[in-house]
Description:
The complex is a heterodimer.
Chain A: H1 4-28, H2 35-39, E1 45-49, E2 52-53, E3 57-59, E4 64-65, H3 67-79, E5 83-87, H4 93-98, E6 104-110, E7 119-127, E8 130-135, E9 150-154, H5 158-167, E10 174-178, H6 181-189, E11 195-199, H7 200-209, E12 215-219, E13 224-230, H8 234-250, H9 252-260
Parallel strand pairs in A: 1-5, 1-6, 9-10, 9-11
Antiparallel strand pairs in A: 2-3, 3-4, 6-13, 7-13, 8-11, 8-12
Helix pairs in contact in A: 3-9
Chain B: H1 3-20, H2 22-38, E1 60-63, H3 72-85, E2 89-95, H4 96-99, E3 100-102, E4 105-106, H5 109-120, E5 124-130, H6 155-168, E6 175-178, H7 195-212, E7 217-223, H8 238-247, E8 256-262, H9 282-292, E9 299-305, H10 318-335, E10 339-345, H11 371-381
Parallel strand pairs in B: 1-2, 1-10, 2-5, 5-6, 6-7, 7-8, 8-9, 9-10
Antiparallel strand pairs in B: 3-4
Amino acid sequence: MVAxxxxxxxxxILLTIAGIGVWLVISQLxxxxxxxxxxxxxxxxxxxxxxxxxxxxxDDGTTVYGIDIDLGNAIGAYYGVPVRFINIGYDALxxxxxxxxxxxxxxxxxxNPLRTQEVRYTRHYFDNGLVLVSPNEQPFTSMAxxxxxxxxxxxxxxxxxxxxxxxxxxxxxxxxxxxxxxYALDAVRMGDADAALVDATTYFLYxxxxxxxxxRYHHVTNSFYAIxxxxxxxxxxxxxxxxxxxxxxxxTLEKILRKWL
Amino acid sequence: MNRRQQRTYIILRTIYFIARYWQWSYRLLILYLLLSLxxxxxxxxxxxxxxxVETTKPHLCxxxxxxxxxxxxxxxxxxxxxxxxxxxxxxxxxxxxxxENSPSNVDWSxxxxxxxxxxxxxxxxxxxxxxxxxxxxPAEAGEFTTLNELPEDSYDEFANFVAAFAxxxxxxxxxxxxxxxxxxxxxxxxxxxxxxxxxxxxKVVYPVVKQANPDVMILAGALAPTLEPVDSxxxxxxxxxxxxxxxxxASAYFDALAVHTYGLTFPxxxxxxxxxxxxxRVELLHELILRYDSADKPVYITESGWNDHPRWTKAVRPSxxxxxxxxxxxxxxxxxxxxxxxxxxxFRYPRYTYSYPDNFMLVGVGFERTPxxxxxxxxxxxxxxxxxxxxxxxxxxxxx
Lengths: 261, 400
């Protein structure tokens, strides 16, 4: 028969051995990956981009630059993860996500409801919808107010289609077609037209060239550009989404857009 | 009242109201039926009477994308406008994945409808074959494959589908393009482009399809014009790829070469060079045909054109797009006897991308004519355009 004191001693020894064993096993286990590691499992953010579309992304042969590039770099800097841009054609943008060649796509990508079974879009970072541009002295805030006025557009563009749609709805206005959207804006600036209908990017770029031109713009349609992730990469989407909200709140997004537009 | 009493009360009140106002119920029903009689009917598509394409430029062709169009009347309108423009041939995509959802269970109804409408408008159809159904591209757990993933084990099934298509539309569809731009990774299941593997595909497809329809013409290649460096993961130079196809023994397994050629920022007559992407790059591909194949082997340009987006780095102005396109059509007719068609990408998409690809279209999503459409119509049908398409630039212009 073992004395009680011995029993306690044996129990303590066994417990100590068991404790050491457990400690050794735990110390061998790797800590669970952080959300950032789960979101970007390759240790970098691989960003698909079609760098042929200024001012969003351009490849000049030595470097890539533009709004989408700055946005990608800002997301990388925010999470402390290096960024790598994969320059591909427009047709391949969704496939690089599907085949896990890229973690996200930032490429002036319009939110497309038909793609939402395979990708998840973030909140939008830019609205490239059509804008109605008119002088400060006689501003037009909606297409419905254009009856009897002169509207300049780029012939054959989505603005042309939108204008013709409105021509069927309201009392006629005079449609002035030009070869280039900048000519449509020139027409307003020179007094040849009362308003112009162009996409938002065209307007902002033009306004940069003509900073003294006093005009107002109002969105007629919306075309939201967003970042896409693969549908099953929820962590990736969440972090990019969070970053965009923070950039919108702290002025980073505005700063990037103002730099290029 | 307790809860049970409340419930009983509500039921009794409901019965009372129905009994009290039942005559209103049937009056409302009659009103509903009357209103439904005057409501506009859902759109229907009535087949046109057979038409003939009036054109002086029989090599003018367009690549349509009606397969993804939801409404039949939009498919009909597309083909009507193609005919009205003066193009006699279309290239249209017939994705295997859309038709054979499960093995040997093929639903031809959509293809029948598209081809019937094309025929009615007097259009010749060149069918582009591709896109693999999920059952023919087995993937391991967690692995994602694209519609362009064609495992070698599925070459036979793909050949059987193409053969079935060739047999079904014998006498109607005489040209089949086997695959699209296999020299791009994205078009080859995101695997490195492999000319030998593509040649193997041709070797499997060709005899099976010819047995099903001996008159059908097999078009191969449809290579993307690209200058990708040798070790690029994205693609292979089209000249290298075609040469490698020939070295792998492709010559006997296609009747004509399908070619994609885009002018980008260069005019149509810009001289070709191996390190340059321009319209006349086709001549370099044709030189390879002359070196490795029969001099009689024809070329079908199944994608071509210029883009006139105001900001895309590879685009030109709308007026240049018109001029370059018309010059290119003249060039094909006058200089390249071996080229049978020049198909412009793309007639219309079912929806806008709101990006530069939209400026490849010849008509808008709502069937609005673009300047290039009007110009092509005048060119192909000898129509004198009604005045200028657009106004001259304002007196002091910011853009030159």
